[in-house]
Amino acid sequence: MIYKGIIDRYRKYLPVSDKTPIVTLYEGNTPLLRARNLEKFLKVNSEIYLKFEGMNPTGSFKDRGMTMAISKAVEEGSKAVICASTGNTAASAAAYSARAGLKCSVVIPDGSIALGKLSQAMMHGAKVIALKGNFDEALKIVIEITKNYPITLVNSVNPYRIEGQKTAAFEIIDFLGRAPDYHFIPVGNAGNITAYWKGYKEYANDKSKLKVKSKRLKLSPNLSTFLPFPARRGETCNLPHMMGFQASGSAPIVKGKPIKNPKTIATAIKIGNPASWKKAEEARDESKGVIDMVTDSEIIKAYRLLASLEGVFVEPASAASVAGLIKFNSKINIQKSGCVIVCTVTGHGLKDPDRAIKSAKQPKVLEPNIKKIISAIEL
Amino acid sequence: MIYKGIIDRYRKYLPVSDKTPIVTLYEGNTPLLRARNLEKFLKVNSEIYLKFEGMNPTGSFKDRGMTMAISKAVEEGSKAVICASTGNTAASAAAYSARAGLKCSVVIPDGSIALGKLSQAMMHGAKVIALKGNFDEALKIVIEITKNYPITLVNSVNPYRIEGQKTAAFEIIDFLGRAPDYHFIPVGNAGNITAYWKGYKEYANDKSKLKVKSKRLKLSPNLSTFLPFPARRGETCNLPHMMGFQASGSAPIVKGKPIKNPKTIATAIKIGNPASWKKAEEARDESKGVIDMVTDSEIIKAYRLLASLEGVFVEPASAASVAGLIKFNSKINIQKSGCVIVCTVTGHGLKDPDRAIKSAKQPKVLEPNIKKIISAIEL
């Protein structure tokens, strides 16, 4: 019953030893919530689950990788860390550094990060540099700095980050007793899709973890060439198809080239030249999945649906996974197929309250008068 | 390993049956984090733990009570719920109602709730009424409404709320194998101190849950009349002293009379006439604890300490518990005594990003120039 973070739970799958000092805020162990209202809304005969990563300590999945990166930095004697960030990495790096007593600096694109995330980095005592430039320029410059100064890079190009993040796939298999058939996930810097795929492969190899073999999936004929998965794995399905989604104004992998000025309201995935581009393509190809894109209005629609139907409030970028599921709903024939689908929702809605306020109905201001209130709430 | 919320875990201690439909977002099971940096900072020879309730699904402890209140409302055939709120209850009621398909209305004091909380209630589709009045007036009016209309009250005067909230005490005992010696907690509407005390008493009666008996506590002589606890319980300490803290501009229990215009930056506890006033006093008296107050500047100091020393970002009201610990640090002689202390921090810092931005150093805006960045981060 007692949970003490992902390193404690999944130690045997992670590059740690007895000498690694564990810096943790008890990240991970996040809910995998069945989304029955969404299933009804989409009229599917499949099980949809939401991996609600907003319930990590700093409100995003980044904490899984950060407990690893900061613990290893301390083990290796580092005194300072740095990252470029659209906000969530900065918040996480700042929090774990505070706990570890490390000096933390974060470089963010000026004017492009959500209010909540900025407040976190500042409160946790990080040195916050707002760069006149975008995320890709920020990442380039921090990589350059860490090559020349004694400061540890904690972006997801730090391999310990990916190691920590892969534990989300372990938790899904532990919860379901199997891997899902499809895994939908937002794609920004592309570290997370890389990490999940690594996690699924490693855990599925540990056969004891899989209690249920998936049944053979039925595909509509015209898509069997597109997603020819039963052929790939014979009669069982031990690994999911990785279904990654970028925002259409910020979709370098989909378009096959870096985007110089990425644009999207989904600030967490507003990245024009992803660090894990190649590994994301490998995950897509090995899993016979897709990396596709969704528009900002599709993202906002999914964002509102999650909050109003399921009680799950996420930041806009998180909803790219569910927007992708809605887009592929008819293509992958999940209405009839009895699939198990997981959508990762990467960060809490509280990260970006301004967007929520803009996206919802404004409150009515009233005098303390019962009749007026009853009339307003339309009981 | 598989966790599915407080009702699933603590069913035998809760008023539910097989017929109760469980509405859950997998709330509870929040971290109890050892605060070693805070221990060093305060120079105590005691163990300090933070019960980080901001890691609930909507970012506050309210979710524990709301899973109970909404599940029972559905069981009883209710179609609509209402609450008055300084923000956290509204967010939680709105989220659980969305998941249950209930209609939810919330009445908030106009202009007095933090941005994040407002965004939550709106996104989850609640009818939000901003009342020209304070929380106490809002509570009065929703109680009046529920007496006359078919709508269920989900404020903490609904007894199921307290039942759910008491599970936080269960988790603490499960984690520590014992009850703490002192439990510090913010006091607003006073439902939470009531709930913890109920939880401690019920769980401590179930002797199997207590693996370790606390040793006799040593008190400085001049305080033995103030907190005469060893005498109360003989040689063992199976229950904590409940140490509740109000904000000094909003401290009706401390001052012994309702406060007409409560004032504090800690909006979550800005309440002038607490619904659970009497029960909070009972918890204080039965536990030989205290209900005292801390100033806004003491609250802000604790708020900043938690973020910068421990990596734990809370909303200002949450820090009232730690501000109380700092205030009582010398009085209860924990420097030498080897006590176990738990501080509940009730809500996530992301609930109130504006306050954080105001409380921290602003970022430096720089061109992408390595030398300038290195100089700014003072490596």
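qc> The longest helix of chain B spans residues 191-205.
qc> done
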